[in-house]
């Protein structure tokens, strides 16, 4: 069956996703608000009208605007699937909460898991976790990925999938800092063990399920990005050792202050998160912060 699919956001992941869906015999139309990002781009109404599904491949800062655009032209039975893994600055809202202000829970899903764009472009395998309340959304997505090497699973814990993606990006910063400090595999293995304890506890604290974070949506995604040369968030952590500041454009850096705020006084319970706060908000030397964390670690 040939489906008409719209992808909003023509960055690396949007284009990679386009290739995956096209390979299964579907018609894909890309749209980006950045002029020139899509050659011969059609009007947004033409992109969205009649679409069987719409994928939102935009950063958290642009998600609300993208939802408003889609809402204006999309039909009520069109499924919306978001790949945004961030928190909206100022509101502290995750992707599922923002999208829920525009669409019913039966109409949208959150796609997480280890899906590095660079690997999808090379037809490497990937693991997608689709958080959705409506099984029909999952069945549609599975059909769209039919000829690809993406193994797609469904979870009903939509908020947990969204939170896991956020925390994966934030914690990938820490693995980048470790790389910048020259930590070896032994020390990074210790860092991973701490993350395994912290991330599920935070997801549960913020309203998701711990088991969601323990799977591909959380720790699986962190393992892929925290050790990958492709990850912008990991690279941002490494670069802070060179530049002295984090790249403010990466989702992990954008979301971190909101995570600190949402966790509140409980931040002290989480060693890695506390270390990142010391670096990001208190401007402490990453080398000193990570050395102290490692010495305290058990």
TrEMBL record:
Would the keyword Lipid biosynthesis be found if you checked this record's keyword annotation?
A: yes
- Glycerol-3-phosphate dehydrogenase NAD-dependent C-terminal domain span: 157-290
**InterPro entries, alphabetically?**
6-PGluconate_DH-like_C_sf (IPR008927), 6PGD_dom2 (IPR013328), D-isomer_DH_CS1 (IPR029752), G3P_DH_NAD-dep (IPR006168), G3P_DH_NAD-dep_C (IPR006109), G3P_DH_NAD-dep_N (IPR011128), NAD(P)-bd_dom_sf (IPR036291)
Q: State the Pfam families in the record.
A: NAD_Gly3P_dh_C (PF07479), NAD_Gly3P_dh_N (PF01210)
Gene Ontology CC terms, in alphabetical order: cytosol
Q: Which domain of life is it from?
A: Bacteria
Q: Name one GO molecular function term.
A: oxidoreductase activity, acting on the CH-OH group of donors, NAD or NADP as acceptor
Q: Which residues form the active site?
A: 168 (proton acceptor)
SUPFAM superfamilies cross-referenced by the UniProt entry: 6-phosphogluconate dehydrogenase C-terminal domain-like, NAD(P)-binding Rossmann-fold domains
GO biological processes? carbohydrate metabolic process; glycerol-3-phosphate catabolic process; phospholipid biosynthetic process
Looking at the record, the residues that make up the Glycerol-3-phosphate dehydrogenase NAD-dependent N-terminal domain are: 40-136
Keywords in alphabetical order, please.
Lipid biosynthesis, Lipid metabolism, NAD, Oxidoreductase, Phospholipid biosynthesis, Phospholipid metabolism
Q: Where is NAD(+) annotated to bind?
A: 9-14, 117
Family, per entry? Belongs to the NAD-dependent glycerol-3-phosphate dehydrogenase family.
From the Swiss-Prot or TrEMBL record, give the protein name: Glycerol-3-phosphate dehydrogenase (NAD(P)(+))
Tell me the organism's taxonomic lineage. Bacteria, Candidatus Joergenseniibacteriota
């Amino acid at each position: 069956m040939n489906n008409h699919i719209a992808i909003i956001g023509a960055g690396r992941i949007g284009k990679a996703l386009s290739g995956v869906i096209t390979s299964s015999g579907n018609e894909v139309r890309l749209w980006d608000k950045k002029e020139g990002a899509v050659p011969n781009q059609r009007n947004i109404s033409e992109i969205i009208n009649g679409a069987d599904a719409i994928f939102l491949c935009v950063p958290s800062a642009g998600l609300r605007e993208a939802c408003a655009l889609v809402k204006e032209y999309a039909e009520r039975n069109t499924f919306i699937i978001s790949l945004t893994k961030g928190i909206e600055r100022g509101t502290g809202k995750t992707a599922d909460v923002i999208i829920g202000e525009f669409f019913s829970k039966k109409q949208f899903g959150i796609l997480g898991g280890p899906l590095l764009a660079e690997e999808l472009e090379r037809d490497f395998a990937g693991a997608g976790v689709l958080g959705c309340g409506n099984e029909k959304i999952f069945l549609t997505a599975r059909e769209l990925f039919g000829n690809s090497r993406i193994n797609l699973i469904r979870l009903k814990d939509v908020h947990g999938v969204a939170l896991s993606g956020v925390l994966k990006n934030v914690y990938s910063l820490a693995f980048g800092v470790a790389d910048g400090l020259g930590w070896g595999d032994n020390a990074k293995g210790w860092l991973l063990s701490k993350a395994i304890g912290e991330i599920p506890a935070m997801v549960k604290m913020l309203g998701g399920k711990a088991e969601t974070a323990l799977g591909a949506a959380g720790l699986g995604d962190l393992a892929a990005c925290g050790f990958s040369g492709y990850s912008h968030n990991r690279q941002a952590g490494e670069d802070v050792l060179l530049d002295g500041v984090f790249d403010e454009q990466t989702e992990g850096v954008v979301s971190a202050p909101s995570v600190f705020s949402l966790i509140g006084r409980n931040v002290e319970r989480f060693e890695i998160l506390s270390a990142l706060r010391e670096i990001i908000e208190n401007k402490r030397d990453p080398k000193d912060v990570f050395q102290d964390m490692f010495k305290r670690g058990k």
